Amino acid sequence: FEAVVKRQIAKLEQPSLQCAQMTYTELVRISQQCECVELQRYPNLHQKVLQIAKQTFDRYLEPTSKLVTALVRKELAYINNDHPDFMTGNNITNLLAEQLDKSRKQQQQAQQAQQQAAAKK
C-alpha cells in the first residue's frame, strides 16, 4: 500500500514545480501589463518599477521551488495510515470476523426456522 501511495505522491512533484513556474511567468506578464497613467509620464521610473518587480519574482522562484520539493519529500517520508478511514490488518480481520459471525447467525436462524416449520407439520 505504502509503495503505491509513495509513487503517486512522487508524481505530484513535477506538476507542482510546473505550477510554481507558470505562476511566476503569469506574475511577470501581469506586472508588465499594468499601466499606470502617472508612470507613463516617467518612462525611466516605469522601467525601474518593472525591473524591481521582476527581480522580486526572480528572488522568490527558487525558494518556492525548494519549498514545493521539500513538501513532497516530507509527504513521502511519512504516510499517515493511522486515520480511521484506513483499513489496517487488525481492522480488516475484525470486520471479516464480524461479517462471518453475522452470516453464521443468519444461517442458524434460517435452520431453526426450517426445523420449527418441519416440527409443526
Q: Please report the total strand number as a whole number.
A: 0
Structural class: mainly alpha
Largest sheet: none
Question: What string gives the helices and strands in order?
Answer: HHHHH
Average pLDDT, rounded to a whole number, is 88
Low-confidence residue ranges = none
Write down the Rg: 32 Å
Strand-residue proportion: under 5%
**Percent range for helical residues?**
over 70%
Supply the number of helical segments.
5
What shape does the CA trace take? rod-shaped
Amino- and carboxy-terminal Cα gap: 56 Å
Mind explaining what this structure looks like?
The protein is an all-alpha fold. The chain is built from 5 helices and no strands. The protein has helices spanning 2-10, 13-33, 37-40, 43-77, 89-120. Helix 1 runs antiparallel to helix 4 and helix 2 packs antiparallel against helix 4. It is rod-shaped, with a radius of gyration of 32 Å.
Produce the secondary structure layout.
Blueprint: H1 2-10, H2 13-33, H3 37-40, H4 43-77, H5 89-120
Helix pairs in contact: 1-4, 2-4
List keywords for this structure.
121 residues, mainly alpha, 5 helices, 0% strand
Task: Provide a concise account of the structure shown.
With about 120 residues, the protein is mostly helical. It is built from 5 helices and no strands.
